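User:
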Amino acid sequence: MKYSYTKSRVSKYIIVLIFICINFLYSDENVPYQSKVIAGIKGGLNYANFTGDDADVYNPESIKGMTLGGFLDFSLNKYLSVQIEANYLEKGSEGFEDFYESYESESYWHPGYYFKEKVIFSYKLKYIELPILIKYHTMEFYKISPNLYCGLSAAVNIEAKMNVQDGGISEFLDVVEEEQEINDLIRDVEYNAIFGLGFNYVINKFKIFLDLRYNIGLVEIYEENESDFKNSAFTTIVGFGYILNPVKRSSSRIPKRGYK
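Assistant: Predicted structure:
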């Protein structure tokens, strides 16, 4: 029931996004406009973590991951473009729980003595992500063209591992480390909302850019577990693009977007 509600919510977001694209694509203002397409590659660093109602119990801490991908950017009008991406993305989190174990007086240890053990859980999740983004381009400042964007993505899980490390707190306990495959527990496909800020610098037909984006999960990472854990990631991206069909535009009608 919970999953059905989440699917319905994601479907509404997708419908709204498609409606916005169609509205700008076929508006009267776009008639004299000649679009352009930019293709490119990008890569960056993720600072991933878990969010959700149950995440605080796990004491989550962010972990670093890598992202690599490619994109096609289609301009719709003088301010808006749609960007389609295909990315490899590493997510996950690290957290811990403290466990206490006491011994009775007949124990060969000290009577009434207890041990404290810290168990560390490290989740490493890998995805192929397919985002679609709406980008709003502002005026150019000193050859730098800022943009704001948002969108949705579907991400397919391709690998899921959990590393468990316990012991090491008490002098009587050894450190035990074990890595487990948890693909059967993790949802095969997750949906995310994306919000970001970008900066473009264009030289002739080439674009160099910096993106800062936040990716937040809309569904729980577990397939059937009732625990509320969702993926989130703050990502820093640098990339390179090539303008496939540059078109000269009149500066009186169309403000600069960082293209020449």
